[in-house]
Amino acid sequence: MNIVLFDETQKINDDVFQLTEQQSKHIHSVIKMQEGARIRIGLLNGNMGYGTYLGKEAASIEVVSLDQAPPKALPLTLVLALPRPNMLKRTLLNITSMGVKNIVIVNSAKVEKSYWQSPVLEYSNLQGILREGLEQAKDTLLPSLQLIPRFKPFVEDILPRMLSGKRGLLAHPYNASVCPVALTEPSILAIGPEGGGTNLRWKNGVKLVLNKCI
Predict the structure, then answer these.
(1) How wide is the angle at C-alpha 82 spanned by C-alphas 79 and 86, nearest 5°?
(2) Helix or strand run (H / E) with residue 17
């Protein structure tokens, strides 16, 4: 945890925020912070700054400042075929830590149907994973996350609109060029399932340009 992230439900008053049980345990047992120490804090979808740790018994932090803007978001939308639930947790955490703010999780032919029934996909669990990623990244802006369990409508109707005015990138292991880095233009990166992608479709003969990259 590189920043303690609060939301409005944790506000005790204008100057003090209550720690969650997980935050309090991490600060006391992992970081081993002492009462009165300075700690970096942030307000969910708001500014960042510093606070004063009020100790284990109080399990709260007093705000000193919230005057720093969060990091600039990457100009990237990630389209990801749903991975195994345990892998999804780690993947979402890492994606969020990297600064991706638009995430679309879709179905595909090689995604097990049972994955869509996993408790990991419950709203509260997903929000917890995303918030943990923000706390690692020293960020406060919660990513937009969409779950789309039907592949064909997504590829035929939604993806063409998403690609308008953006650069399309398709992660592919064979006959690929080097993936561009340090992108400044709005882009979409599509990553297929663990077993490989088998069926990208086109609508009304209009090609969706997805340049292959490693």
Answers:
(1) 125
(2) strand 16-18
